[in-house]
Amino acid sequence: AQSVAQPEDQVNVAEGNPLTVKCTYSVSGNPYLFWYVQYPNRGLQFLLKYITGDNLVKGSYGFEAEFNKSQTSFHLKKPSALVSDSALYFCAVSDGGSQGNLIFGKGTKLSVKP
Amino acid sequence: ETGVTQTPRHLVMGMTNKKSLKCEQHLGHNAMYWYKQSAKKPLELMFVYSLEERVENNSVPSRFSPECPNSSHLFLHLHTLQPEDSALYLCASSQEGQGITYNEQFFGPGTRLTVL
């Protein structure tokens, strides 16, 4: 069975500082990994994904994530945080089943202070 | 309209009521999903329709009944709900199929459901 863990309920960062939101996963086959962001009263928005290829994936709004197979991690990063990045971030994993099901983590609330 | 839309955005209902949630995707996708988002819990996949065939999640109570009349529309029919069913219900769509690499899901804004 596949699973994903986001060990931090909340991450606090000062504006302009780098940010990291952690994610680890477990799948039986090759992982398909995603990051989504949710702003208040909105649905989830896709940020980036890793399917295959380069371990460093670049996505929307300056975010990037690094796939680390040995550590089964897919941490989300941004070099310089903005106050507008404050939101709920979800990591998701799939083993690429035919129905395209995703297993989501419980989410990490990112708070960026001025 | 673009993307994935959901109506209503807010719904308050009693335990004996029957109501329906509607989702419409304008992206030409062939797979649609219902998720339940409760506070402090991971997103729960409820139902998947792929190429208009339903894949049912066995853990979903029968008081939730999905309907997918075509590839652009998805409904969630609700009856005799419980207060613990209060949550944000999210609809999503994606393009799936043979030979297509794994594609991301696009989400609607959700329906905030309160069961009294």
Which tags fit this structure?
heterodimer; A: 6-stranded mixed sheet; B: 116 residues; 7-stranded mixed sheet
Give the helices and strands, then pairings:
The complex is a heterodimer of chains A (114) and B (116).
Chain A: E1 3-5, E2 10-14, E3 19-21, E4 24-26, E5 32-38, E6 44-50, E7 56-58, E8 64-68, E9 73-78, E10 87-94, E11 103-104, E12 108-113
Chain B: E1 4-7, E2 10-13, E3 18-25, E4 31-37, E5 44-50, E6 53-56, E7 64-70, E8 73-79, E9 87-94, E10 106-107, E11 111-115
Parallel strand pairs in B: 2-11
Antiparallel strand pairs in B: 1-3, 3-8, 4-5, 4-9, 5-6, 7-8, 9-10, 9-11
Notes on the protein architecture:
The complex is a heterodimer of chains A (114) and B (116). By secondary structure, chain A is an all-beta fold. Chain A contains no helices and 12 strands. Chain A has strands at 3-5, 10-14, 19-21, 24-26, 32-38, 44-50, 56-58, 64-68, 73-78, 87-94, 103-104, 108-113. In chain A, strands 2, 5, 6, 10, 11 and 12 form a 6-stranded mixed sheet that branches. In chain A, strands 3-9-8-7 form a 4-stranded antiparallel sheet, with no helix packed on it. The model of chain B has no long low-confidence stretch (mean pLDDT 89). In chain B, a hairpin with a 2-residue loop joins strand 7 and strand 8. Helices cover 0% and strands 54% of the residues of chain B.
Q: How many runs of DSSP E, i.e. beta strands of chain A?
A: 12
Number of strands of chain B: 11
SS class of chain A: mainly beta
Arithmetic mean pLDDT of chain B = 89
- Helicity level of chain A, as a percent range? under 10%
Number of helices of chain A: 0
Shape of chain B: globular
How large is the radius of gyration of chain A? 14 Å
